[in-house]
Structure formats: C-alpha cells, structure tokens
Amino acid sequence: MALIDPITSDDYDTFAESNTLAAVPVAGQRNILDPGFDLTLRPMRYPQFFDMYKDSIKNTWTVDEIDFSDDLVDLDRKLLPAEKHMVSRLVAFFATGDSIVSNNLVLNLYSHINSPEARMFLSRQLYEEALHVQFYLTLLDNYIPDMKEREAAFAAVENIPSIKAKADFCFKWMDQIQDIERIETPEHRKQFLLNLICFATCIEGLFFFAAFAYVYFLRSKGLLNGLADGTNWVFRDESCHMNFALEVVNTVRVEEPELFDAQLESDIREMISEAVECEYLFAADVLVEGVPGMSLGDTREYLQYVADTRLALLGYSAEFGSKNPFSFMELQDVQGLSNFFERTVSSYQTGIGGEVGFDEEF
Q1: In degrees, to the nearest 5, what angle opens at C-alpha 32 toward C-alphas 28 and 34?
Q2: What's the CATH number where 108 sits?
Q3: Top-confidence residue, 271 or 22
Q4: Is the N or C terminus of the chain more exposed, i.e. has fewer CB atoms within 10 Å?
C-alpha cells in the first residue's frame, strides 16, 4: 500500500462529512458538552458513536493469543545491545502509558461527554486500555525476568527522565479540568477540548504511534514477532480511540463553532509542538546507543510528519511540512484513520487467528 499524501485542511470538510451522521444541531436539543447524564438511547442523538461501539466489539482479542516464545530467543541471541536498550525503554514506557490514558477516561472524559452512545464506547475503550495494560504486563514478565529490573520499569515515570517528561506533559495538558465538576463556561469547554485533543493526537496519536514505529522497525528485521503481533491489535484499538475522540471534537465544532477560535488553534499547535519535543527527547534516549538503520534525524522527521497528520485531521494546516522517512511504516499508513471504517471487515472480526497484516483490507 502506498503512502497517502498528508491530509490538508481543504480535505477536512470531506473527512467531517464522511464521519459524522448527526452534523446538524436540532433547535432545543442538548449539546454533547451540556452538563448532565442523558440516559435515553432512543431517540438516538449521536448514532455514529453507537456504530463505533459496535465496530470496536468486532476487534475483540486476548493477550493469550500472542506467542512470545520466539521473542525470548531473539532477546537472548539476536538483538544487539543497542536494540535491547531500545526494547527496555519501550516496555518501561508501555508499563505506565495506558494507565495514564485510563485515568483520564474515568476522571475527565466520561463525566463530561453527555451522550449515552458515546459513554458506551468509552466503557468499551476502558476495557481495551486494561487489555493493553495486561499486554504490557505480559511483555515485562517475559522480557524482564529479574524482579528488581521489572519494578524499576514500572516506576519509569519516576526514575527515567525521558519518560517522566512525557508523563509531566500529559498531566500539564489534561489535568486542567481535573477539578471542574461542570463544564458550563466557554473557557471550561475549551479546556475540555484541549484535554480531549491532547489525549487523542498527542498521547495515543503521537507517543504511542512513535512507539509502534520502533516495534515495526524491529519487525522489519525479523525480530520480536510476538511483540509485533500484539502491537497490531493495539494499533487497531488506538486507531478506533483516536477516531472516536476526533469525532467528538467534530461534533462540538458543529454544535458550538464559536469555541474554535484563533486562541484555541494556537493552544493546540503549542501543545502538539511540545509533544513532538517530548517524544524527541524519548527518541534520543531510545537510540542513545546507536541502533543501525534508525537515525535520530529520521525519527524527528517522522514525529513531525505524524504531528502534521493530526493537525490535518483537526482541520488545521501543517506545522512542519515533513514527510515519512520510514519505509517500514508504509504498511501501517498513519493516514488510514479517515477511511478506517470504510474498509471491508474480512480480517476485522472477533476471534481472528494468525498474523494480522496491515496490507490487508480491514
């Protein structure tokens, strides 16, 4: 599959139209960010979120399906010391990354998105985040047999500066609404949007997608196929999560367009640029010992490329104008989010066995 050119702001209207089933607000109808907990699914105000919930069910998988036996051989006999360092940093980040996401779902998102259909999806997402945590826990148990090393990995946000910087970034941009019980003012609603956009485009859409790139780089060399198999499933989950969050943003844009002013765009650009710098610091740590075939300069280019795709999905012009330097990521296609649910589902069903390839239709 060839890479798709980065989505421009001119493409946003097409993206929004194809992903929104309830684009026109109805007079007297509550908006999705109005305080309260609507409980009635009929009549359904936001059927697109219910459809996303049903699609997510089709992607059910379990950690027990993943075979790590070959990975242990690779770790013992095939990986270079620099590659082993890369893997140790990855699993340390994974150990706490999805826990931060889960806490934000429960504490900051679920209580403010006033749509029972959307809360159904968030409930499913919380399950998937727990599944990811189990996957990463299993990674740690398999990859790091020494208990003290394993405990250190779980404490990465405290003892590894590059990971602590990413955690501090998350708390800076997401905890602003921690103490807000009802998002009634325009300023509160903008803070909520920044939280949601940070969660979607920076954490799941940049931090995790950068981590996936390291995994798929190793896979391109025939290494750690168990890790890659599990990451395939996580990749799909995260794509669904990001698609959902961006659809909530689009719904708010339709219902309350006045919130999307120049200041909000400026804040979003600042946030995404800061996320790129945080992830670049992590990349410098991951690649500090020199991994053959993966340079720090190319990694920055890739991070900027992904950041530009996230801005495009929000309807904004590119910040960096970067291209994807990693040919091994072509099958992953970080642009595929816009037509993720327009593909056939021949390999997107519960209980799929074997290898999941992103060059297949799903």
Answers
A1: 70
A2: 1.10.620.20
A3: 271
A4: N
